[in-house]
From TrEMBL:
Keywords: Hydrolase. Signal peptide: none annotated. Belongs to the RelA/SpoT family. It comes from Streptomyces globisporus. This is Bifunctional (P)ppGpp synthetase/guanosine-3',5'-bis(Diphosphate) 3'-pyrophosphohydrolase.
Amino acid sequence: MSAEAADPGAPLRRRSRPRIDLRRLGRVALRGPVSRDRLPDAIGHVAEAHRAHHPDADLTILRRAYVLAESSHRGQMRKSGEPYITHPLAVTLILAELGAETTTLTASLLHDTVEDTEVTLDQVKEQFGDEVCYLVDGVTKLEKVDYGAAAEPETFRKMLVATGNDVRVMSIKLADRLHNMRTLGVMRPEKQARIAKVTRDVLIPLAERLGVQALKTELEDLVFAILHPEEYEETRALIAAATGPGDPLETIADNVTHTLRDAGISAEVLIRPRHFVSVHRVRRKRGELRGTDFGRLLVLVGEDADCYAVLGELHTCFTPVISEFKDFIAAPKFNLYQSLHTAVVGPEGAVAEVLIRTHRMHKVAEAGVVALGNPYAQDPAAAPQSEPSDERADPTRPGWLSRLLDWQESATDPDTFWTTLRDDLAQDREITVFRTDGGTLGLPAGASCVDAAYAQYGDLAHTAIGARVNGRLATLSTVLSDGDTVQPLLAQDTASGPSPDWLDHARTPAARIAITGWFSDHPDEAKPDPETVDATGPGAQSEPSPEREDPGAAGPGRGRSGHRATGVVVDDPDAPVRLAGCCTPVPPDELTGFVVRGGAVTVHRRECPAVAAMQDIGRAPVAARWADGEGRESDAGCRVTLVAESFGRPRLLADLTEAIATADAAIVSATVEPPSEQRVRHTYTLRLPDAAGLPGLMRAMRDVAGVYDVSRAQHPAPTG
């Protein structure tokens, strides 16, 4: 039981454990060897903290590790003047208090020996086994990372690859950085600032992703004090002024305690003070702090079901602030965090935030992966279990880390990797979205359907054409919210590729690197030519029947019935020539023609589906080309039919026609089909002064909000 829970009947304010006197530890550490039958006094605090979490732990290996570490570091001093052995001792104590298992603590005691002493990895392996050796080797690689060096990106990438298979290595590094940050005052101010910035940009986000909140919050406060000393002092003064009798949270906590006791729910109600950075953030958000803003209530219970029982009582007996409710038990965060979040209104309108979780959830919330013990230890007597899925498949390699390791392999350029890593770690939070097959995806806040497509399908997402979000059709640019259900939709044409516009909507490294890589492999596609875009996406049409290949010959009322393509030359110079409405060719399209009723020649784009259909029924093609190599359509310009696929919204038609007019095109005819599943198809027959303006016209139409595809018509264009 934690110190916070010492008295279940009364709310307690969490107090920090007194810091160990490192100078005293140093003196104890230098007393020389001890007998084999007892633990050295210098690691007594480590043993005490370790036994609190693991009562049956065998401390023999810790004793041997300490003896080797102390003897190998003997004579070395820290900049603070303390014996060097105090550093691995302090790092190991931090991890022991978080509940790390014995192997991690052993490696922590030895984590600097290979780097800074004569001890070799082979010696570590011989004396402590493969697992401890692996962890020490991983930490040694981390110690070699110079975050300010020119080779930083590639070095960090190699470090990530070397240590990513076991996050216990990163846990030791985080504890190492915490102790170094605690003793940073002996450094020059400029070096303090450099170390603090790296801690802020890389290590604190990693601590967040590993779920080690206890390390993360203290690191945040230490960085805050170095990089923003004035705001830190202001926040410290505010917290000091708010500490004392009359805390409104104590009144609410007492009321909650009695409410739950009367309901027969066994629970501990604690007051959990906010750390400095948290108070600072609340102050910036609200402007003026309320008395209840300096802490939150923490309710600890035995079972998951008890969490919901507590929630029900609170929402029944107090006025809840519904907008503050979040269920991270049913949908855990990406870093294994589970808890119910809510807020209730207490006496005189005071609002208190409440966290509800089990003791196990609280341990994981504080210590993250450190609290999970040895993830590779198997109980031979235990019954085999089905393998978990998604984010919690392997607690030492949570989903975000698996994705990180996957996309770093695709980012062949170190600078791209480093920049993308920094951007990814800068995300304030992640969201969980649900897949229609029952799985989940962890994505950064602000992620779009593009990100979901690549997270679910990898490179197959190059063929994505849209998505369904919560059962409704959505564009790939749609931003997802926590709890959404998403189903990316893929085209049948596996040869198609992504649009450059997708990079504007991709927030995840996996998506951005995959899209960028595709364009690197297809340089000619980096700026797709709209003239070659067919309706192979959601607006694709069925192939026309041969009988309808010529809308110009279909009778009166058709938009092209009197039009003659004077810019086209065919083998029969006397035959009337018409441009087919199913594909509306314009220069520089390659052409082919067919004789239709009345002796006229209808000219199609060569890749038009109608061409294959005509040939299948035995129609002989007629050679056709643009006149004089220019393909101009007399003084009237060129005519083209475009299909715009969009999602219905007010003023869509007006915005599209405005875009067409702005591109200097005239509308000959237009039809709007009835909406289907929130999707609307517009078909426009347009006249342009020159065929060269077609790419710009199509881009302008695509830029209209709600429009997700504009293509050349592949079907007879009906006109009203």
